[in-house]
Amino acid sequence: MIRKSVAVVVLGLVSLTACAGTPESKPVAQQRESVVALTVAEIDDLGPVVTDVNGFTLYRFDGDKPGESTCDGECAATWPPATVADENFTATGVDKIGSIVRRDGSRQLTVDGMPQYRFAKDTKPGETKGQGLQGKWFATGKSGERTRLAARTGVIAGLGAVLTNDAGLTLYRFDGDTAQPSASNCDGGCAESWPPVYVEGEQPRVKGVDPKLLGMITRKDGKKQLTVANWPQYTFKNDTKPGEAKGVTVPKWFATAIDGKKAQQNKAIALTSATVKDLGVVATDKDGMTLYRFDDDSANPPVSNCSGACAAQWPPAYVGEGFQVQGVDSSLVGTIERDGKKQLTIAGSPQYLFSGDKVCGDANGQGVGGKWWATRADGSRAGK
Length: 384
Prior knowledge:
The chain is mostly beta strands and 384 residues long. Helices cover 4% and strands 30% of the residues. Strand 9 and strand 10 form a beta hairpin.
């Protein structure tokens, strides 16, 4: 319970001897000001999220229950509980605040009953490196909701850039629905095979998607479903990992392109872009593998200084004749000759893959040696 402390006044003992004057009453404990423990900050792509007073993002854990924390030991070392000294605290712009007492006796903040945590790898205000980790940790919205992304961008081989959910699973649109007005006609067994993409909070949270294309409809169960260019959005139950789009073989179902239209086959696409972890939108090859640039290279003129063992760890991104570009300004794209092949360049910087990346969406090469960086769609270094 959150309450204001009350000043406690203890009266001095009155001497009954004639030589002593009447003593003044003196407080031994002064009324304390309430401590502001929570506030709200606007985070790119996530919208308003709850932070502590120092601006560090607070998270909620799907493994918890309202009023109960299940994160102790090593978990709590990675996800330090957001604590206060006592119940005498307030919040700015945050609804439904409270606190619980943990097993160690400390008092942990809650929002809408859910315990709040920081993330040890967030080293400065505004960082959200913990967002979406393990599919269970999410920055907290101002009313306590998870700040799950409703849509971001991914890459499907042969289709190029498409929309995905926050787990990287392809989004689809259904010809049996209507866009004017927006209406879903997929319920019951259909919705079991094609789970609707739900929106948590007051508005859709997205990365790499034009917010003007976004909307919501209310389904029969009262939940809000995402629409893109007025078309209701779904995932497909047979897609189990990023990069899959098995639903495109089903009549009337199409992967959703980043403009809300039907994604079309285009095997000539060699360079595109996708949302990768906390790096935002970065350049990828046709399979969605992250592209990197090397600080020891030259962009003007374009020169690669990575060969031999370096090139074994950082394979050059080669392209063929007549390759096509999607999601990257084509005026920034070029090539250099290398071993009789053409290595891709973006804004003059030669592009590479990383041997340590195994699946699309990986960015394990980010920051390696302090010289390797994922490439943003404009050619600049991501995360710098």
